[in-house]
Structure formats: C-alpha cells, structure tokens
C-alpha cells in the first residue's frame, strides 16, 4: 500500500518559473490538502479539497493553484515562483467520518523540498 | 480563526518523563491530534482526543480539556529516538481541515 505519494522530492526553480507538485493517494480518502513548512515553524495550510471537483483556500493560498479532477490526485501548481515560496511542501489525505482511523487523521507524503532562486 | 500555542523547545533526559502542552482558541473544534516529526521526515500520527480525558498508548498519553482549550502530550521512559518535533493540531469537521501549532522540538539527552 503506497499511501500518499509526492513528486518530485527536490526541485530548484528560478524566480518566475512555474511548476506542478504532484500528489496521489491510494486509500480512497475524500480529503486532500497541501501544507508548507518553513524552518522552525509548523504546517500552514495552502489549499484543501473535500472531494473530487471541490477545492478551497487555506491560510496561505496566494501564488498557488489546485484542482481535484479525481479522488486520487491533487496537484499543486506554482504559477510564477518567488523566493518566498522556498519551503518544504507536504501533501496529506484523510478519510472523512466512518473509516477505521480517527476522523481527520492525516496521512502525509514524504515531502517536496523546493528552492526558488 | 485559529490560535494554537505550544512551547518552542524542550529538553529532557533519557528515561525521564516530559509533558508538552498545547493551548488553543478556535472557531470550531472536533478533535485534537498530536503528530511526531523527525528531522527531514513527514509528520506521523501519535494520538487523538475528541472527548475530555486521558488517552494512553504505550509510552505516550494525551489529555484534553475542551472547556479550557488545553491538551498535553505525555512521554514516559524517554528514549533517544524520541528526539523530534511534536505538532499539536486542531481538527474542524465543518471546515474539513486541521490547523497546526508551530511544533515543540524535544531534545532527549543521555
């Protein structure tokens, strides 16, 4: 069982470039989310989705786009990269009520370390 | 909005007990999670409280008081491998999302 898979694990961009971080989960989770984590800080929510076709903004959505065309995939797009977007990005998923694990328990991908020069 | 506070750093000795506190003020609450994150790795689930009281899982216990907006994570018989960051997160069912505190970095010394 792969769980949550994120690619790439490392990426270096120049200011102004665009890119997509991929996230896929095979646990049939309805909820998926993207967080960023900066040194010495916790996780800040960028965007999230409670099901296919539904997305919403988190705390720090500016400069990022998401889409949820399938239950499995939730890509994060950086439209025009800026040095302030240098961070570690985590994709996470959870089942909603009725599953075997506590409702809201997040399963994380391994993270994508992005550097913007 | 959400406001979640935890100490930035703590140090403890191998074999000892340490308590990591978390206070929160939130607009919606449906559960409190604790996650462990080793340096360079992803967070992993430790414990979960939805009702007041103590939940025990081996060397780890977590306590919740909803009326006080307070939780703590208790780690017993500390081991060197417990050196990690511990993240407190409040889950809101209505919003369908978790909000995290900044994490507490625990260093266990011999």
Description:
The complex is a heterodimer of chains A (117) and B (110). Chain A is mainly β. Chain A is built from no helices and 11 strands. In chain A, strands 2, 4, 5, 6, 9, 10 and 11 form a 7-stranded mixed sheet that branches. The radius of gyration of chain A is 14 Å and the shape is globular. The mean pLDDT of chain A is 92. Chain B has 110 residues and is mainly beta. In chain B, the strands form 2 sheets. In chain B, strands 2, 4, 5, 9, 10 and 11 form a 6-stranded mixed sheet that branches. In chain B, strands 1-3-8-7-6 form a 5-stranded antiparallel sheet, with no helix packed on it. The model of chain B has no long low-confidence stretch (mean pLDDT 93). The A-B interface holds A 31, 33, 35, 40-45, 48, 50, 58-59, 90, 96-97, 101-111 and B 4, 8, 30-31, 33, 35, 41-45, 48, 50, 87, 89, 91, 93, 96-103.
Write the layout of secondary structure elements.
The complex is a heterodimer of chains A (117) and B (110).
Chain A: E1 4-7, E2 10-13, E3 19-25, E4 31-37, E5 43-51, E6 54-57, E7 64-66, E8 76-78, E9 87-94, E10 107-108, E11 112-116
Chain B: E1 2-5, E2 9-13, E3 18-26, E4 31-37, E5 44-49, E6 53-57, E7 60-65, E8 70-75, E9 84-92, E10 97-100, E11 104-109
Parallel strand pairs in B: 2-11
Antiparallel strand pairs in B: 1-3, 3-8, 4-5, 4-9, 6-7, 7-8, 9-10, 9-11
Report the strand count of chain A: 11
Uncertain runs of chain B are none
Spatial extent as radius of gyration of chain B: 13 Å
Assign the structural class of chain A, choosing from mainly alpha, mainly beta, alpha/beta, alpha+beta, or little secondary structure.
mainly beta
Radius of gyration of chain A (Å):
14 Å
Helix content of chain A: under 10%
Which structural class should the secondary elements of chain B be placed in?
mainly beta
Number of strands of chain B: 11
**Oligomeric status of the shown chains?**
heterodimer
| Unreliable sequence segments of chain A | none
How do the SSEs of chain A run, as a string of H and E? EEEEEEEEEEE
- Secondary structure tally, helices of chain B: 0
Question: What is the overall number of helices of chain A?
Answer: 0
